[in-house]
Amino acid sequence: MSVLATVHLVRHGEVFNPDRVLYGRLPGFGLSDLGLQMADGVAEWFVERANRIQRQPAIVAASPLQRAKQTAAPIAAAFGKKLETEPNLIEAVNAFEGMSNVAATLKSTPSLWPKLRNPARPSWGEPYIQQVQRMVEVVQRSRDVAVDTLGPGAEAILVSHQLPIWVTRLATEGRPLMHDPRRRECTLTSVTSLVFEDGRERPRVEYHEPNAHLLAQAANLPGA
């Protein structure tokens, strides 16, 4: 089965966040030193892939948030590409944004409990289905532009955030969008690849961890 295009969804690297804040869309949360090392590592992974398959990406784009753009910058530079900004790749809205130690805060703050009434939506933030819709719009547009630019087999690289990437994968695989955040397979600078093939209605999913050797050193908040 021939590959029409591959769109890679990359999660950003580790963020400097000593207070373990659920930072969401808050400004001022850039990559840590380890996160910058991760960004360089995922760029090297894509260069090695490009050399192996003899094909460079047509597009490198990122969420407008600092941590995503910092992760994408070495990838774009490695291929001499202009880094594009895609607003629809942004992190999900979350009512608990800005909190640290979220579980304990929720337990001790009854006024916040109504936000937990419907985890299937979820009631504390941007509905999962809306995240999927905006992510899929960028994926499909990037796929089409990549193919128009470089022909069949073209690739695009999109740097985003854990939750939007994960629910996009769930939707692609036909799984329920409601899930346990602790069970997401989407580590820092992981690559979730959507492989579009002729004759298949849905893309095939591949998953890679270019910086697996660094993950034990990293601070990691679900959804961050």
Describe this entry's structure for a reader.
Helix 1 packs parallel to helix 2 and helix 4 (128-150) packs across helix 5 (162-172). The protein is globular. Helix content is 33%, strand content 15%. The protein contains five helices and six strands. A six-stranded mixed β-sheet has the order 3-2-4-1-5-6, sandwiched between helices. The mean pLDDT is 95. This is Histidine phosphatase family protein. Pfam families: His_Phos_1 (PF00300).
Structural topology:
Elements: E1 3-11, H1 33-53, E2 59-62, H2 66-78, E3 84-85, H3 102-107, H4 128-150, E4 154-160, H5 162-172, E5 191-197, E6 204-208
Parallel strand pairs: 1-4, 2-3, 2-4
Antiparallel strand pairs: 1-5, 5-6
Helix pairs in contact: 1-2, 4-5
- CATH top level label: Alpha Beta
Helix and strand pattern:
EHEHEHHEHEE
Largest sheet: 6 strands, mixed
Please provide the count of β strands: 6
Low-confidence stretches: none
| CATH homologous superfamily identity | Phosphoglycerate mutase-like
What is the mean predicted local confidence, pLDDT?
95
Radius of gyration from the alpha-carbon trace, in angstroms: 17 Å
The strands making up the biggest β-sheet line up spatially as 3-2-4-1-5-6
- Assign an overall shape: globular
| Strand portion | 15-25%
Structural class: alpha/beta
How many distinct domains?
1
Which architecture name does CATH use? 3-Layer(aba) Sandwich
InterPro entries: His_Pase_superF_clade-1 (IPR013078), His_PPase_superfam (IPR029033), PGM_Phosphatase (IPR050275)
Protein name: Histidine phosphatase family protein
Organism: Micrococcus lylae
